[in-house]
Specification:
six-stranded antiparallel β-sheet; alpha/beta
Amino acid sequence: MKRNLLPFHQTGWLYLLIAGWSLLYWIASQGGFNWLDQFNRERLYQAVPAQQSEQKVLRLSTALSPAESQSIIQLLSRLPAVPVVLLGSPSESLLSTLADHLATQARAAKVTVATGVTSSAAEVIQAADTTPIFIAGLDWFRFTAPEQVQWRTSTQLVYAPLMHKPDGGLPVIWREEDKVYPTLMGEILRQTMIVDGAQFKTGWDLELTLNGQKWPLGMQGDIFSAGELVLSRSLNDYLTSEPSLLPQVIFLDDGSHPFANEVIRTSERLLEHSYLYQTSLITLLHWVLTAVGLGLLWLVRAMKTRHQAVIVVAYWLTLGVIQYIAYTQMQWLAVAPISITLLLSWLILLAYQWETRRVEQINQRHNQLLGEALPVFYHAQKIDRIQPILAQTIPDLKLADKVFDVALQAEANNNRPLAKNLLSWVEDSGLKHSASSQKLSEFAAPEKSEQSLDSTLVIEPGQTPSQSMTVPALQIENFGRYQVEGILGKGAMGIVFQGVDPKINRHVAIKTLQLHDADNDSFNETKARFFREAETAGNLSHANIVTIYDVGEEGELGYIAMDLLTGAPLSEFVKPENRLPAPLVYQLMIQITDALDYAHRQNVVHRDIKPGNIIFDDEIQRVTLTDFGIAFVADHSKTRTGTIMGSPFYMSPEQVLGKRVDGRSDIFSLGVTFYQLLSGQLPFNGESIASVAYHITKSKQASVRQWDSKLPASAARITNKALQKDVGKRYQTMDEFKQVLISALKRDYKKAPIV
């Protein structure tokens, strides 16, 4: 049921930004930002200038009209071996006059007319067996062809299409069907090399060969240029002067062609072998860098805007370095499209995040109001009116906690269908709410009789409460060196025997566990807890902590030999009519806090403090803390979050919710024990685990003096602080708890602690 958060709050401008991104991207694909690429090439040329020889291209400005025909004929006659290119819009009358002149006075070099869709150039011959089969398909996509090409036969004038791509590239060859022809750039090369034919080979990259010299053309066959513009002179000025050096190509330019400067400069670089081109690797690198940039934006989307800006700028600088390295190898890597794509995508991402935050704020306020309304509607028995709103909202953890609380109330009131429905909503929300998952697993399990609420409970995530493990009374004579004297009773895990060590005549209690059910995961955990008790308590040495003498296995039984304690558990003194005197309770609590303070300093958290686990010896006025079966070493705990351990009446709120616990959890449990011993009542009661859990996590206990008005004010003050639901508001250490008890005992009863 988890919904994606989409920013639909006042987002007209956001969608306008997306439309603008699409428009700008289309403009970029049509060459609208070629000026930026050209500017970039110029800066790179200044950083790494190409080596130039003498000027190879001459640009002469003229009108290319019939009135200039005699001046053009004079130029052709003066320089018969220099190719001449008419660049612009020559009139048909001028072309006819020039054709007539060339028919009567042939010249060594040809006159080329730059056109858009007209061609008369001879075919470029493809080298045999140089085209791999898997490359042939590329040829249909990478060659540029003029639209509706018109063929014009001419023996005096050569017509060559002048092509210009949106990315600023000038193609050298073009393709029609299975034949390849030169563009204006290719024709200039062919005439300057004084050859009629040319060869090119294909592969991942193209290459043109003329008179043994090779011109690599990259993957697309396009070339790019940068650097100084070719100087321009008027035709009449040139005819009246004496030329010092003969150029290799002369352009007659009427100034009407939009790419005249780029064409003439590129011709100069082409003849110098100092032009730029794009190999297949550079093309691949372009798309890889684009993908990396967009992926980088996705990875940093959760960062603050200024951190995102630092990373984006660093990426742009990296692009600049990569482009510079490629330029030094005469490779053109166009980073402007990558940068524009990255910048626009980043702006949209920022806008989306800003809108998302606004929607989240509105949703949080909505959920807060909904969470406050839930208990009101529940107590008014109108919860059905608010459930459709729950189904439409985008949930968060605070709202899930509110719904979980109402579900616990419903379960405590025996309204299990409503409780299950609300818990299912929390589970389907996609939020990690371990307590609701645990409760749902309890609902899914077959109905069982409720476990005794004062017994130790251990529930792993996804499990339901299980009954205590027991083993039958066995006819057994000894456990290791300990001889069995009889049966003391039945414990939570198995039979407890009385035994004796005959060598030193020490009487012990022998706690046992049957070990045969090794394939059962739940039993394996029980077994691990059994031996953990021996390990944990065995490492503790304190007058008020049970002493462990030995641990081992005898046949199918595991056993722990420990002190045979005299006396009775404090659970015998929790009924109102059987309470111990209040001063004695204070004194016994001081002994327990001292023992637990020692355990906590050894990083051991008991997790099951309750009257039944504290043995009171009335003769010596001393208590002994027992049953470390679910204790853990705080800095080496393997207990998973979501595991619920403890005795329900005595568990702390963090235990109920399956969270990790520390020594402050024992403080809460000891506070419950103190409250019960003083008053004969539990601070949090209920008929089921669910109702008890609800009261522990949500309800405030009655003052202990409400049950016995003779108790001193310190009793209420100490129990209230120990039973704080917020761990930060309780006593933070057992020693702090102990010192408060000592002060109260001396002040209220004028007694000293029993050592």
